[in-house]
Design brief:
Elements (H helix, E strand, L loop, with lengths): L3 E5 L3 H13 L3 E5 L2 H11 L3 E5 L7 H11 L5 E5 L4 H9 L4 E4 L4 H31 L7 H13 L6 E4 L6 H10 L8 E5 L5 H9 L16 H4 L4 E5 L6 H13 L1 E3 L6 E3 L3 E6 L3 H6 L5 H7 L2 E4 L10 H16 L5 E2 L1 H8 L6 H15 L4 E2 L1 H7 L3 H5 L12 H19 L4 H8 L3 H10 L7
Parallel strand pairs: 1-2, 1-3, 3-4, 4-5, 6-11, 6-12, 7-8, 8-11, 13-14
Antiparallel strand pairs: 9-10
Helix pairs in contact: 2-3, 8-10, 13-15, 14-16
Length: 455
């Protein structure tokens, strides 16, 4: 498919000369003699690059540029003028122009500019496609009343710069809420930086958040920016903030109060403009009572609280979620054509979901892979997913006792992990060391079984 170029100039000779040069390069070219004509033509033609004259009768070039950018924020526009000045060039750039050319137009310079502009247009399009892919990946699926309330809060709070504390069980979708808040804000085109406070050792969390200078500690071989600097102008999402060590909490409080960070080993304060969103599955009031979390930090983080409903509170969303996950898994695992029968979906709705949406997605993927036929049936749900007899009252099952070998293995692993976590006072790093298991694997198992420290 040829590249599409729109030339806007009130001089017929200029339009024709530029058109001939570009058509010789196998480009599809259309021309407009005024700004109004260009604005009318743009939505239908969808040019990849626009060459736009500055001085035109009626609607001038700068105003036309603004109108085109309103129609399409990604429009790639090159301004051309026979009376170019620095002031005009600056104004054009400020309004989103890609480049500025002076008349008379040199053919070689014209071709170099159009190739650069086309490359830029392709990059903008690719970024847009990637953004759409990411948004679909983190889409909030469902139409239940509980989810509607969450969406209403996001729509109200998202456009502000207010800090938000997102609470809810593991696997309930706290990250999706954080990303939705970012997309609803004026920072949507700036970075969204995520930090899992539970997955970073306490001795490294300060370096991760605030950065460090070369030689400030063993292993600091070079200067390194922290997540606050990386998120400047955008959003920083502190996931599982309740697991942050107390010394890091004190430094975080200072950053939130003053809007500046200081790298470890550094003396220079760096100003940052960051919106902070935090999430936790813990009762922070209880953590404060046990002196594990700072009360003043809670007040800084919790300007607005959004409680994410568990899947048990929105069972009516399961059919839509199953359909959504089926499409996702089919694309990733090459399982096109597989689907769930209505009875199988109803069977899934009748189960308890301790791991919430994350557990449901894993169940959908497992069923699509292991079910023998193209359509997943209720018997497949009972046979393949652990704990089916307990939830559904299958004859012969005993409440509280596993009825399959797979369930027995999982229950044994769960009980074993709980015992080891108790022995190490629920210190994940120490437990992983004792088990000779990577800490990341242990975190995954804790999430999988929804393990909680007892009171």
């Amino acid at each position: 498919m040829s590249n599409r170029i729109l030339i806007v100039d009130d001089e017929p000779g200029i339009r024709q000369a530029v058109k001939q040069v570009l058509e010789y390069e196998d480009m599809e070219v259309r021309t407009a003699g005024s700004g109004g004509e260009a604005i009318t033509m743009y939505p239908e033609f969808r040019p990849q690059v626009v060459f736009l004259d500055v001085k035109m009768a009626g609607l001038d070039g700068l105003e036309t540029l603004g109108r085109l950018r309103d129609l399409d924020p990604g429009a790639v526009v090159v301004m051309i003028s026979g009376h170019g000045t620095i002031t005009t060039a600056v104004q054009a750039t400020q309004r989103g122009a890609f480049d500025f050319l002076e008349k008379p137009l040199d053919a070689d310079r014209l071709l170099v500019t159009v190739r650069n502009a086309l490359a830029h247009s392709e990059l903008v399009g690719e970024n847009s496609r990637l953004r759409d892919t990411v948004l679909k990946r983190y889409e909030m699926v469902g139409s239940s009343g509980a989810l509607a309330e969450t969406r209403t809060l996001i729509a109200r709070v998202g456009p502000t710069n207010a800090r938000v504390l997102i609470t809810g069980e593991n696997g309930s979708g706290k990250e999706l809420v954080a990303r939705a808040l970012h997309e609803a804000s004026s920072r949507r085109n700036r970075p969204f930086v995520e930090v899992n406070c539970a997955a970073i050792p306490s001795e490294l969390i300060e370096s991760e958040l605030f950065g460090h200078m070369k030689g400030s500690f063993t292993g600091a071989f070079a200067d390194r920016s922290g997540k606050f600097e990386q998120a400047d102008g955008g959003t920083l999402f502190l996931d599982e903030v309740g697991d942050m060590a107390l010394p890091a909490q004190a430094k975080l409080l200072r950053v939130l109060q003053e809007g500046v960070v200081t790298r470890i080993g550094g003396s220079k304060s760096i100003e940052v403009d960051v919106r902070v969103l935090a999430a936790t599955n813990k009762d922070l009031a209880e953590e404060i009572a046990e002196s594990r979390f700072r009360e003043d930090l809670l007040y800084r983080l919790n300007v607005v609280e959004i409680a994410v409903p568990s899947l048990r509170d929105r069972l009516e969303d399961i059919p839509a979620l199953v359909e959504h996950f089926t499409r996702q898994v089919a694309v990733g695992a090459g399982l096109a054509g597989r689907k769930f029968s209505p009875e199988a979906v109803r069977r899934l709705q009748s189960r308890t979901w301790g791991g919430n949406i994350r557990e449901l997605r894993n169940a959908v993927e497992r069923l699509l892979i292991l079910a023998p036929e193209k359509v997943v049936q209720p018997d497949d749900v009972d046979r393949i997913l652990p704990g089916g007899g307990d939830d559904l009252g299958i004859p012969g099952s005993v409440p509280g006792e596993p009825h399959t070998f797979e369930t027995f293995k999982q229950e044994a692993e769960k009980n074993f992990l709980v015992q080891k976590l108790r022995e190490n006072d629920w210190n994940v790093s120490e437990t992983a060391r004792a088990l000779k298991m990577p800490r990341s694997n242990l975190y995954k198992k804790i999430e999988r079984y929804s393990l909680r420290r007892e009171n």
